[in-house]
Amino acid sequence: MELAVYNLEFPLNCKTLSICGDEFSRVVDYPSRFRALQHLVSVHDPEGSREVCTGGHAHTANATTPNPIPPAAISWGFAHATALDDILLLLSLFTQRDVFVVDLSRFGDKPFAILADPRCFPWGGVLSCSVPFKGFNPTDNPTDEVDIGLLEQLPKIYERLNDEKWRKGYRNGYFLVLLKIAMQQRSLEIAFSQCWTIWEHLFACLNDAWMSNASIERLSAKEKIAFLLVHFGVRVELQKHEKSRLDDLVAIRNRLVHYGRFPDRDFVRQDAEMFVRITEYVAAKILGLYPSNVFNTVERLEEFLSAQKRVMKTGHP
Question: Per the count of CB atoms within 10 A, which of 172, 223, 233, 279 is most buried?
Fold first, then answer.
């Protein structure tokens, strides 16, 4: 089956992406279609230039899928999910755009409405940069260099998603569905709260074999965050003072959930942004990647853990 793929941005000079039987190939007029997408900065590279553009959805590729399409590895929560849903999710996360397919044969010449968001994701840079540029030059012409990083890594990541031990440990990867929701959020408040949900979900995945649901729900959020930071190797250990600093993150979460807004204190938005980036960092590790530190995420976490407790401007924590 051949499907129209929207909003897929290919790596430099990469003409096709093959992932577990699904092949994505550029449309003939890919350069003009690609320029029609949203671009937040002007860039010139060997494939040409693109200017800042509000943009919209664009049919940039075609996908050929096996028949029948294999079932999904990810636990989507709806019936008849397929491997194609999984792969589109991974493409969305690593290209920071909402990538989806349309079976144009269903519509013919009839118009159809698209409900997806055409804008670039405001988050996801840590994850996307965790697949670094890997050049391959089939000729002696430097402008022909192909970035094969994503081409090599995506099949490995999808193989990991299908590993039985991994699936059991991470409840069939449902956190990736939650992660896409977080990465799409325009509001830092919503992105932060969605990332908090991801940390709660991951803690439950890793501990529900020996902890009851009631025990997991009663355990303090600070202890859960501390456990995951060490479990995923973000920190080797947390000293007593460092663990106490996590109370500030809990205070952000509590104020946001109970009052609908961040606490009124200095550095609150910086702390919330750091938490979102750390979530991406952890997700990269779960997917078997070496997390990128392009946003100085590790240093910002260290600064946070070593700082003094934040105080609300009203004098209350």
Answer: 279
CB 7 within 8 A of CB 141: no
Encode the chain (317 residues) as per-residue pLDDT tens digits: 789 999 999 999 999 999 989 999 999 999 999 999 999 999 988 888 889 999 999 999 999 999 889 999 999 988 899 999 999 999 999 999 999 999 988 887 888 899 999 999 999 999 999 999 999 998 888 889 999 999 999 999 999 999 999 999 999 999 999 999 999 999 999 999 999 999 999 999 999 999 999 999 999 999 999 999 999 999 999 999 999 999 999 999 999 999 999 999 889 999 999 999 999 999 999 999 999 999 999 999 999 999 877 766 654 54
Phi, psi for residue 217 in degrees, rounded to 5: -70, -30
Residue 293's alpha-carbon distances to 168, 169, 187, 298, in angstroms, are: 29, 26, 23, 7
Q: Parallel, antiparallel, or unpaired for β 48-50 and 43-45?
A: antiparallel
* In the chain, alpha helices (H): 30-35, 83-95, 125-129, 149-161, 164-169, 174-183, 188-207, 213-218, 221-231, 240-259, 268-286, 297-306
Q: Is residue 295 classed exposed, middle or buried when 0-12, 13-18 and 19+ CB atoms within 10 A define those classes? A: middle
Signed CA dihedral, 174, 62, 139, 12: sign only:
negative
Q: 3-class DSSP state for residue 115?
A: coil
Task: Give the CA angle between residues 235, 233, 176 to the nearest 5°.
Answer: 120
The identity of residue 139, as a single letter, is: T
Q: Report the alpha-carbon angle 311-193-54, nearest 5.
A: 110
